[in-house]
Amino acid sequence: MRVLSANLGFPRMGANRELKRQVEAFWSGKVTDSALLKVVNELRKDHWVLQKNQLGLDIVPSNDFSLYDQVLDQAFTVGAIPKRYRDVFIKNDDLLPSALEGNMLSTYFAMARGYQQFPTEGSNLPVIDLEAMEMKKWFDTNYHYIVPEFDPTQQFKLTCNKFLEEYKQAKSFGIETRPVLIGPVSLLLLGKASPNSPADFAPIQLLERLLPVYEEIVKHLAEAGARSVQFDEPCLVQDLDSKISQSYHEAYSCLSMAAKKSSAEPIKIQLTTYFGNIVPNLAFIFPNLPIDGLHIDLVRAPQQFETVLSAAEKHPTLQLSIGIINGRNIWKTDLSAAFDMVKKAVAVLGTDRVIVTPSCSLLHTPHSLDAETELNPDVKDWLAFSVEKIKEIVLLTKAANNGIDSIKDELEANQRSIQTRRTSPKIHNPAVQERLKSIDHDMIRRRSTFDKRWEKQQEIFKLPDFPTTTIGSFPQTGEVRKARAAFKRGDISQEEYNKFINEEIKKCIQLQEKNDIDVIVHGEFERTDMVEFFGEHLEGYAFTKNGWVQSYGSRCVKPPIIYGDVYRPKPITVEVAKYAQSLTKKPLKGMLTGPVTMLQWSFVRDDQHHKPTTQQLALAIRDEVTDLEAAGINIIQIDEPALREGLPLRHSEWKEYLDWSVDCFLLASCSVADTTQIHTHMCYSDFYDIIDAISCMDADVITIENSRSDLKFLGAESFTYPNEIGPGIYDIHSPRIPSKEEMEHRLKEMLKRLKRNSIWVNPDCGLKTRKWNEVDLALKNMTEVAKKFRTMGYQV
């Protein structure tokens, strides 16, 4: 008997983002579905071989791979395909279950991205215009999942056998895996009622109908020889109604029975939680939930260890999976401290009942440090990406089974790194620490109330009703990326690069003026990413060459690393903003990223609380705001899309977080005169949960995602907003171009809740991922709708 090592999920994109490139080639029609799936199969194989044969993991996951999103995969698997997609793509249900190919693949991507078909004149093809499904943040991460839709009349059916094919594929290579599935209760809790469902309908009411499909999944896996299956139930770390306890009992009693009936050697059921503390919901699990294993996140919630360990001890056959390697951040683990937790678990449960794992799926960390040849050696020595984290897991497991001396050399090297980082002068800057002490109440409030500021701003800007703007970024074309890469390689000079960027800015402003946008942006062509760009100009940040993580679909981001105290050495955006403003007589927005988003979308230092780090970021942004205003830029947008994302998963912890995070936004924005208009932007979260806190940010204008979620933000019963607001009028994460009629409908719905002189007209988010022709047509429709509403005088 021995302690086992395991992984809960591996990054999908590949060491060099192979999946991203192949999926996007498929979307653009450059490769067939069979060519796409061939690359996918090879990539999965490489990941299994890497984890099992090269790194030495005992338990390797399968079905953690996804072409877009794991929640969409699970909804698709159980047949939760909304009728609007099924009617277009799936003509014969008798063909199911099926592999994810052909029409099934078209259906899948239509659900994720939307789909449009406008036949040429004379064609017999029908017009098809399908919007994408809603997208939301995955708990408090920057990963986005597709929100399942459930209808009261929903009938579930095993629709896709991806989970089985991937298990069999790994087995054909001689690798036994543990399939990963979103658990039935979390799948329903993460979903939403379909449009026009009764007000009293909740998807969890469908559990009894859903469970037979999960039983079928267990049966198929058992027949194929699977020894265990991982059911992810992350909702167990949230505040849950006590009635949900019965749902968990019903679900896992059913699955346990299915596992026992499925084969002579029952397949083991592991319940997996992460991102928080399960102790408040521990009664949902013990004493009556018939599971074989339980995973807990001891990085985010180490305080639950003793309680859960004590509960597990009373169940002599239960294995406890201890998540002691951080699956969401990139710092090297203190192996000595982690081994103390392993020893404690083994002392209580015995070697055969302990599994060493990351805290959550490694989806949230980059692939490997191998490519980071240009990273500062000191900083690199403090880091561990996914491959390195698995090595840490294997080392700790080896120590548990063979004694601590079996990893003596590795442990000594690890402790040197930990100590060097702790005492490094790179981390601590006395001047920054002193400046934090100077923050006072006057620095976090505007000089006048909004009504007084509004009057002064209107005198200057003279904006019409329903003023139009965009969120900031414009298409980052292949030419832009090529020029940036050439500049970084030294193939073109700074002067040549600046000339290219200026031409892109000019083109962007001309397009906005052609479409009569009221408040112009410069397009952000000089920026790789809204956080990375600013981080590159701040001290205390480090940057990777290949540290990509998935944000949604094929969209990857390369989060910078905050390793020490942060400050701004010199202005960042002022010269570009001045140049852009010189090209137009219309007001131009200075575009900045807010301090909370800079924090949330970076890999953050873990040696201090997030609050002082965010205050440092706020002071750096405040300096930039002050300089922009002095340069004559009198509309400044400070984006905070991650404010809701950082909200703790337990309501009892909300107030503390919201107090300091809102204060940090105010610290960044409140140095300006009344005549300077402060905007902010937020997207892809349930913002109605924190609307009071958003109001306290006191931005003159907030633009907010509203279309992808089908106006849900405005539909909240308690919704009010005291200043000006631009709920997004079309979804930019889909390639489809919205019609004027669609936009008119959304604007009419806004008028049911908002005063006409408070509404701005804008897209859901930035246009970086779109093509120029899509942007041109969509903005043309948008401004024409705004003008129509002005002239027709729409009122509630």
From TrEMBL:
- Enzyme Commission number(s) of this protein: 2.1.1.14
Identify the residues that bind L-methionine. I471, G472, S473, E524, D639
Name the CDD domains for this protein: CIMS_C_terminal_like (cd03311), CIMS_N_terminal_like (cd03312)
Question: What is the required cofactor set for this protein?
Answer: Zn(2+)
Q: Name one GO biological process term.
A: methionine biosynthetic process
Specify the species: Cetraspora pellucida
| Pathway listed | Amino-acid biosynthesis; L-methionine biosynthesis via de novo pathway; L-methionine from L-homocysteine (MetE route): step 1/1
Cofactor binding note of this UniProt entry = Binds 2 Zn(2+) ions per subunit.
Indicate the secretion signal residues.
Answer: none
Q: Which family does it belong to?
A: Belongs to the vitamin-B12 independent methionine synthase family.
| Residues annotated to bind Zn(2+) | H681, C683, E705, C765
Entry keyword annotation includes Cell membrane = no
Q: Which residues form the Cobalamin-independent methionine synthase MetE C-terminal/archaeal domain?
A: 466-787
Query: PANTHER family of this UniProt entry?
Result: 5-METHYLTETRAHYDROPTEROYLTRIGLUTAMATE--HOMOCYSTEINE METHYLTRANSFERASE
Q: What is this protein called?
A: 5-methyltetrahydropteroyltriglutamate--homocysteine S-methyltransferase
Xref: InterPro entries: Cbl-indep_Met_Synth_N (IPR013215), Cobalamin-indep_Met_synthase (IPR006276), Met_Synth_C/arc (IPR002629), UROD/MetE-like_sf (IPR038071)
GO MF terms here are: 5-methyltetrahydropteroyltriglutamate-homocysteine S-methyltransferase activity; zinc ion binding
* Active-site residues, Swiss-Prot/TrEMBL: H733 (proton donor)
Q: Where is the Cobalamin-independent methionine synthase MetE N-terminal domain?
A: 5-346
Q: Which residues bind L-homocysteine?
A: I471, G472, S473, D639
Q: What does this protein do?
A: Catalyzes the transfer of a methyl group from 5-methyltetrahydrofolate to homocysteine resulting in methionine formation.
Q: Binding residues for 5-methyltetrahydropteroyltri-L-glutamate, per the UniProt record?
A: K20, N142, R555, C556, W601
- What top-level branch of life does the organism fall under? Eukaryota
**Keywords of this entry:** Amino-acid biosynthesis, Metal-binding, Methionine biosynthesis, Methyltransferase, Transferase, Zinc
